[in-house]
């Protein structure tokens, strides 16, 4: 409301009043929902043989006993085996594991008529002796229902060539050859379930990916009175897993559908990391992941929240030249569209105070000024070069006797609605490239070829910016 003294009111009554031309602000009690846009990131996993060797060495049984064997003339042999470090080769779609196995044996001679003749041999055999063989297992990988990569279709071979640690006396050769043949069968039966039990836990890997993606990061948007702090968060809506490729390394592509959020203010401290993997988003097995290295993630802020923060950063009203007691304050911003459907930014300010015109004084209470302009993207900055007061605002300025001060008002308001989003893009690039360790697997790190701002959108109730990355997230084991 404006309280004008009578002479001014009578003078203004004869002036035609334009129809208000400013776009109406959207209702605050029912803000329009932010359109959900899914972004796709490709996560490339590369596992070296050394990583599988390490996991196998930690998980495989170190050794055990084989069943006693009775060979020739009641010579009962007790057999035990121990393994060396596994050696893994990846080629032709299969994993081949070679395990050096040492078999220790010793014999006991039970009473029988020929015992006296066999006693010298038995005395020699009762000493703990051993031989070494290579057990080779070949397997093809497959993902099970728990998203663990298992090695099925296992074939186990025990080398025919034996490497004895001690020379064999002629009398013992036939007996030891028979023992070796039986031990080979035992080893094959023993190693088969051991190799099948080897898994690469992609569930843990995907959990590590999901946790890494969900780590929020802080950004700042500079303004003349100080930076606007914001927190960007992302989450994975869905994983897709392609078929593994095995040739030199185990290569696995994973697709992740991402959604984002932006809240004004600094990010809260991260919660403690849980000790066990949590529930994962839905996972889909596909033939192949579409090759793509462009990751664009729209992040949106509510205009109401942005307006509130601008009022906190700019609590001091500003005066119009020649009317130092007339103050403009309480800025609000929102978006609209013009008659051609092009986006517009609207700034609304409250005008209060006292206007002097010679000996006359009148009060202005809750007058509303509106400025409007078409936003343009200039590199990483949002510019509004066409910002101007609306026609009804221009009439109001005439009413209060400060016509011709539109340019000053535009100069005061424009820096409050033009934003440099360079820090948003840079922090997104740094977040993407940051290395992270995944316990029990290896490390993930983004390879960034370029970072940009794909665009901005001005929607009812929302301001949306879309930083993008050209690159891919790589998970490598071991870390290198």
Could you name the key traits of this structure?
2 domains, 9 helices, rod-shaped, disordered N terminus, alpha+beta, Bactericidal permeability-increasing protein, domain 1, 480 residues
Give a brief outline of the structure.
This protein has 480 residues and is an alpha+beta fold.
Strand content: over 45%
Mean pLDDT: 77
Helical content, roughly? 10-25%
Oligomer: single chain
Largest sheet: 11 strands, mixed
Secondary-structure-derived class: alpha+beta
Compute the CA-based radius of gyration: 38 Å
Annotation, overall tally of beta strands: 28
User: Could you say how many structural domains there are in total?
Assistant: 2
Could you name the ranges where pLDDT drops below 50 across 5 or more consecutive residues? Answer: 1-20
Can you count the helices? Answer: 9
- Compute the separation of the termini in Å: 69 Å
Write the layout of secondary structure elements.
Blueprint: E1 2-3, H1 6-13, E2 39-47, H2 49-59, E3 63-71, E4 75-83, E5 87-91, E6 94-109, H3 115-126, E7 129-143, E8 148-158, E9 163-164, H4 170-196, E10 199-201, H5 202-213, E11 217-221, E12 228-241, E13 245-247, E14 249-264, E15 283-285, E16 294-296, E17 299-302, H6 303-313, E18 318-320, E19 323-337, E20 343-357, E21 360-373, E22 376-378, E23 381-383, E24 388-389, H7 391-399, H8 406-417, E25 419-420, H9 422-433, E26 436-438, E27 442-459, E28 462-477
Parallel strand pairs: 2-28, 12-15
Antiparallel strand pairs: 1-21, 2-14, 3-4, 4-6, 5-6, 6-7, 7-8, 7-9, 8-10, 11-12, 12-14, 13-14, 16-28, 17-28, 18-19, 19-20, 20-21, 21-24, 22-23, 23-25, 26-27, 27-28
């Amino acid at each position: 409301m404006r309280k004008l003294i009578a002479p001014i009111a009578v003078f203004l009554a004869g002036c035609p009043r334009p129809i208000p031309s400013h776009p109406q602000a959207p209702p605050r009690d029912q803000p329009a929902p932010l359109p959900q846009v899914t972004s796709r990131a490709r996560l490339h996993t590369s596992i070296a043989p050394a990583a599988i060797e390490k996991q196998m060495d930690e998980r495989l049984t170190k050794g055990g006993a084989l069943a006693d064997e009775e060979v020739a003339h009641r010579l009962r042999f007790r057999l035990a085996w121990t393994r060396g470090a596994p050696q893994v080769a990846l080629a032709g779609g299969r994993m081949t594991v070679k395990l050096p196995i040492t078999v220790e044996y010793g014999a006991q001679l039970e009473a029988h008529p020929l015992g006296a003749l066999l006693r010298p041999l038995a005395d020699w055999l009762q000493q703990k002796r051993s031989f070494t063989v290579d057990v080779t297992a070949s397997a093809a990988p497959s993902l099970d229902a728990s998203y663990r990569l298992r090695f099925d279709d296992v074939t186990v071979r025990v080398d025919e060539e034996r490497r004895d640690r001690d020379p064999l006396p002629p009398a013992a050769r036939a007996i030891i050859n028979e023992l070796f043949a039986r031990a080979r069968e035992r080893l094959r039966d023993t190693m088969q379930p051991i190799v099948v039990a080897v898994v690469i836990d992609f569930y843990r890997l995907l959990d590590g990916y999901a946790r890494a993606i969900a780590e929020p990061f802080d950004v700042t948007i500079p303004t003349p009175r100080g930076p606007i702090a914001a927190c960007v968060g992302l989450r994975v809506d869905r994983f897709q897993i392609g078929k593994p490729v095995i040739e030199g390394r185990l290569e696995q592509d994973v697709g992740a559908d991402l959604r984002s959020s932006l809240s004004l203010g600094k990010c809260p401290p991260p919660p403690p990391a849980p000790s066990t993997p949590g529930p994962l988003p839905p996972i889909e097995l596909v033939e192949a992941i579409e090759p793509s290295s462009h990751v664009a993630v729209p992040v949106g802020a509510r205009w109401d929240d942005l307006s509130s923060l601008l009022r906190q950063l700019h609590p001091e009203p500003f005066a119009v030249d020649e009317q130092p007691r007339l103050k403009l304050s309480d800025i609000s911003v929102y978006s609209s569209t013009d008659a051609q459907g092009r986006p517009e930014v609207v700034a609304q300010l409250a005008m209060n105070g006292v206007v002097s015109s010679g000996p006359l004084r009148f009060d202005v209470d809750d007058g509303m000024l509106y400025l409007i302009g078409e936003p343009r993207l200039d590199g990483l900055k949002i510019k509004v070069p066409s910002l101007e007061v609306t026609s009804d605002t221009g009439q109001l300025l005439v009413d209060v006797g400060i016509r011709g001060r539109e340019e000053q008002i535009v100069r005061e308001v424009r820096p409050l609605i033009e934003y440099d989003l360079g820090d948003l893009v840079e922090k997104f690039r740094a977040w993407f490239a940051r290395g992270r360790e995944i316990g029990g697997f290896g490390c993930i790190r983004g390879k960034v070829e370029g970072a940009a701002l794909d665009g901005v959108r001005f929607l009812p109730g929302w301001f949306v910016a879309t930083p993008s990355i050209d690159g891919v997230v790589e998970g490598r084991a071991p870390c290198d």
